[in-house]
Structure prediction request, 255 residues.
Amino acid sequence: MTEPEPGGNAGGATTVVVEKLSLTLGDLPLFDGLSTVFPAGQTTCLLGPSGVGKSTLLRAMAGLIAPTNGRIVGGDGRGLAGRVAYMDQSDLLLPWLSARDNVGLGARLRGEPTDATAAHRLLALVGLRGHETKRPAALSGGMRQRVALARTLMEDRAVVLMDEPFSAVDALTRFRLQDLASTVLRGRTVVLVTHDPQEALRLGHQLFVLSGSPAQIEKSGVPDLPPPRQPTFGDFPARYQDLMDQLAVGDAGAP
Ligand SMILES: Nc1ncnc2c1ncn2[C@@H]1O[C@H](COP(=O)(O)OP(=O)(O)OP(=O)(O)O)[C@@H](O)[C@H]1O
Ligand SMILES: [Mg+2]
Prediction:
C-alpha cells in the first residue's frame, strides 16, 4: 500500500462529477436527474433536512449504492473505484481490535499486510500517541472519532467522503477535530455531510444545501476567508444568518 502522506495530495486531486443522477429507494425518488460538480482539492459541505438524501448521495459517491440512472465519475470521466475513502456517521470501529489495528483495517480486509508504522504515525497526528493498543471501549467518543479519522487518512485516497464525522463529540472536541481535519485533509476532494451550519461555514470551500423531493442542490455563500474559519471573524456571522435562512426555507418543503 502507498505510504500515507497526511495533508498531501494523494496522487493528485480529483474533481467529482455527478451526472444526471436518479436514485429511487423503495418507492421514494430521492434524486431525479441531479447534476453537480465537487471541485478538486476542495471541501464541500452538504447540508439539508433529515431524510432529504445526504447520506444516500454520499453512499452513491462511495459506490455503496448503485444509481437508478446517471453516473458519478472523476474529472477524467473514469469511475471513482479505488480513489474514495468513506467515513460513516457511526465510527464503525471493530470492538475487538486495538486502535492501531482499526486504523489498518482497510488493508486487512483486502488481505494486504498492514503498515503498523504508518498507523502509529497517523494516530500520533490525530493526538492519540500512547493509545495505539487500546480497544474502542477504552476510548472516549472523541478519541474513537479520531481513530476513525486516522483510518480514513490511512486509506490515502484523493476523495474523502465524511458523513457527520464529528456529530458524537462535545463542542470543544468538535472544534478541535474540525481544525485537525481541515489541516490533514488539505488538497483532497472532501465532501462532508453535517447538520451543523457553523461546522459547514468553518470547513467548506463551498456549501451545498439539499432540499425537496426529489432533492435539488442550491449553493450557499461562504465567509471570505480560507478554512478553517473562526466563527467571530469577518463576514462569518452574516453568512451564518444567510445559511440559517436558506435552511429554514428548505426545511419547509422537506419530505
Ligand atoms: N435502504 C433504504 N430503503 C428505503 N428507503 C431508504 C433506505 N435508506 C434510506 N431510505 C430513505 O431515504 C431517505 C433519505 O435517507 P438519507 O439517510 O439519505 O437521509 P439524510 O439526508 O442522510 O438524513 P439524516 O440527516 O437524518 O441523516 C429517507 O427518507 C430514508 O427513510
Ligand atoms: Mg444521513
